[in-house]
Write a structure and sequence with these properties.
This protein is α+β, with helices and mostly antiparallel strands. It has five helices and four strands, in the order ββααβαααβ. It has a four-stranded antiparallel sheet with strand order 2-1-3-4.
Amino acid sequence: HVGDSRAYRYRRAELKLLTRDHSWVHEQVTAGFLTEDAARTHPLKNVVTQALGGSSEPSVDVLETAIEDGDIYLLCSDGLNSMLTDDEIDHLMSLGGSLEAMCSRLIDAANERGGNDNISVVLLKTHRVAPQGS
């Protein structure tokens, strides 16, 4: 991944952030200069340090992870996670329902908080496929 869009995995009722933001503010949080709460409202929160389409080649992060039956993967733009905390996203996903209902719930909640940016949400659910001949 590159930039400040995120990927999460929801497994066994637990949300886990799989990516790290390529942003100035995230670098300050990692270095201990800013708290997560301060980062949410910092005036430079939208300054990305890696992006596609810039003048230089970005450094792309690659993650390999095991996939389990029933995992739900959430891909979202910063319009979602800048309006909702990870705990709030976790709670909204824990309410269950169809993937479409979960997407709507997440987007609606972000819009209710102000929806200050474009909100893109993609949910993918894994299903075990029986081997051929079974």
